[in-house]
Amino acid sequence: MWSRVIERLFDKDIAESTQALSFKDGVLVVKISNSVLAQELQIEKENIIASINKEAKKKIVENINYRL
């Protein structure tokens, strides 16, 4: 689901530069390729969370942590 949402919101290159690592207690942990991308995704975090929850048809993600 992560890759589909990111590709839809941004583009395929960004989706391929990220990887969902884990999900527990409403927190999604995502590996990212560089700090510039981390900053961009951090700015859009609320929009990403809303898009994931919309696709899931319920509130499953409450927060996203990015890891380099």
3D structure, described in words:
- The chain is of the alpha+beta class.
- It has a single domain (2-67), classed as DnaA, N-terminal domain (GMP Synthetase, Chain A, domain 3, 2-Layer Sandwich), CATH 3.30.300.
- Helices cover 50% and strands 26% of the residues.
- The chain has 4 helices and 3 strands.
- A 3-stranded mixed β-sheet has the order 1-2-3.
- Helix 1 packs across helix 4 (45-56).
- The longest helix has 12 residues, at 45-56.
- The radius of gyration is 11 Å and the shape is globular.
- The two termini are 20 Å apart.
- 13% of the residues are buried.
- The mean pLDDT is 96.
Sum up the structure in keywords:
3 strands; alpha+beta; three-stranded mixed sheet; 68 residues; GMP Synthetase, Chain A, domain 3
* Radius of gyration from CA coordinates: 11 Å
The stretches of 5 or more residues where confidence is low (pLDDT under 50) are: none
The SSE string, one letter per element, is: HHEEHHE
- Give the amount of beta strand, in percent: 25-35%
Give the termini separation. Answer: 20 Å
**Total of DSSP H or I helical runs spanning 4+ residues:** 4
Query: Which word captures the global form?
Result: globular
Percent helix range: 40-55%
Find the CATH topology. Answer: GMP Synthetase, Chain A, domain 3
What's the rounded overall pLDDT mean? 96
- Domain count: the total is 1
Q: Largest beta sheet, briefly?
A: 3 strands, mixed
Query: Strands of the biggest beta sheet: in what spatial order?
Result: 1-2-3
Query: How many β-strand runs?
Result: 3
What's the level 1 CATH class? Alpha Beta
Category from helices, strands and their pairing: alpha+beta
The CATH architecture can be named as: 2-Layer Sandwich
